Amino acid sequence: MPAHPPDARPFPPRRAAVLLALLAACGAAPRAAVAAPATLALEDCRLEQPGLRSVAARCGTLRVAEDPAAPAGPSIALRVAVIRALDRHRTREPLFILAGGPGQAATDFYTGYAAFFAPTQRSHDVVLVDQRGTGGSNRLVCDLPSDFEVATPPPARVRELSAACRRGLAGRPEFYTTSVAVKDLDAVRAALGFERISLYGVSYGTRVAQHYLRRYPARVAAVVLDGVLPPDASLLTDTPLTAQRALELAFGRCAADGACARAFPGLAQRFDALRAELERRPRHLTVADPSTGAPREVEFDGAALAGAVRLLNYYSGTTALLPLLLDRASHGDLAPLAAQLLMVSARLDGQLALGQNFAVTCAEDVAALGHTDRAALAATYLGTRQVDGLVTLCEGWPPGVVDADLHAPLDARVPALLLSGEADPVTPPAFAARAAAGFRDARQVVVPGQGHGQLLVGCAPWLIARFLDAGSGRALDAGCLERAPPPPFVIDLAGPAP
Fold first, then answer.
1. What pLDDT is stored for residue 146 in this prediction?
2. pLDDT (tens digit, 9 = 90+) per residue, 414-444?
3. Spatial separation of the C-alpha atoms in residues 480 and 121, rounded to whole Å
4. What share of the chain is helix, strand, coil (3-state, %, to 5)?
């Protein structure tokens, strides 16, 4: 049920079975020495995830008060990792990486994408702080059904699961919000001895980056915002509308592509018919579990279809599969789409700290929910299920610590690079344009046909490094990224059209 999954690197679209992994410098002044005080001693370590290459780092923990207003009360340990710059003679401000979700740990995110930060790491230390409630920072986990994130149970069941989640949390959720997390970031900055830092935020991490900049403007050299959530955006009422827009773009691109249009005519109309049919008559399927191969019983209804389409439409590599999967589903073969849903659900369950996700969403989005145009939401393929489900889930959650200006516009002097995918289903280019208005030196780049998160696209890693080194986006030549084409549609199991 999170508004967006952790950012992921899908397999190339030539693979029929797609594995969905889970969701800069204002001058050349040298950074402060990295010698850490006794409160944050660093030692050699390796960051590892199963099946991924490990990353050498220097790791430590910093203890902070769980309740910032009670420094003598209970404390939690923040997991911190530093990856040193390769060129020790030209080191600039460090880059702090802020993961998405909410609920993904920075160390997990970086381990999957370390190679894409290599151009930046040449002259910048990379600093990872698992946000409180994620990863190694007192992770807030909930024992929920594996499909909870993509299917909305009945309200009574949602309340029951929500109460069980709260009872099992390892911390008090009211203190695991963005407003508290930015205090943690600055405590780590100070403990490491950095005068100024740069920030890379992806998805929800862009909210954290912007709020840190709001609270500590003198400490920020530059920011890179990838998949931009502007301060005033809602993770609730905006998501169905932006998801609908992205799906319509995908259908339009297929209709304009000769091979896709011939293979899958009338795809948008057939999707609507399939959704209506599954709402009336859910299908009971036996599907091979993508992880174990064992048979699993699945009830595939309209909500399951919407959840599968929403998550597959996050990234251009998996969007390339959607026409084929929807075509097969409209002809009665729902198993491939259901298998994708199982795969996504399993990945979300392992990568997201749902307790932290709910702590943020309930305090910052549901609590700020104003007038909702339910008719507009109902007209989308996601409908009102997500909004209604999250409102119900949050009924028993305590009010979180939220700064009064969290959703206010910024007025920032630091340079900002804002990256958007044209077909992003949760943070579209219009969001980045709204956020860019809060910066006096902003460069927005929109990548045609791409979905959520641009770090993996074309020359993006080198563009980010050039921006951080230059300390401004005004003269940045982003043509190499703005011209990057999306992956071609997969026409059959042999792969995409030539």
1. 65
2. 999 999 999 999 999 999 999 999 999 999 9
3. 21
4. 40, 15, 45
Give dist(CA 179, CA 215) in Å, integer: 9
How many Cβ atoms are within 10 Å of 396's Cβ, its own excluded?
Answer: 12
Q: What is the pLDDT of residue 494?
A: 65
pLDDT under 50: residue ranges of the chain: 1-38
Q: Residue 49: how many CB atoms within 10 A of its CB?
A: 17
What is the spatial distance between Cα 198 and Cα 421, in angstroms, rounded to a whole number?
Answer: 22
SS3 of residue 307 by DSSP: helix
Give, in order, the Cα–Cα distances in Å from 295 to each of 17, 285, 325, 339, 454. 17, 10, 20, 11, 36
- Positive or negative: CA dihedral 3, 5, 7, 13: negative
Reply yes or no on domain 1-11+18-498 having CATH 3.90.1150.10.
no
Residues whose CB falls within 8 Å of the CB of residue 50, separated by 6 or more in sequence, listed in order: none
Which of 243, 209, 196 is CA-nearest to residue 93? 196
| Per-residue model confidence (pLDDT) at position 349 | 65
Q: What angle do CA 214, 354, 371 make, to 5 degrees?
A: 60
d(CA 264, CA 2): 31
Residues 6+ apart with CB under 8 A from 51: none
**Separation between Cα atoms, residue 1 and residue 386, nearest integer Å:** 7
Distance CA 321, CA 337 (A): 10
3 state DSSP class of 256: helix
Structure tokens at 386: 């997500």
pLDDT in tens, 375-384: 999 999 999 9
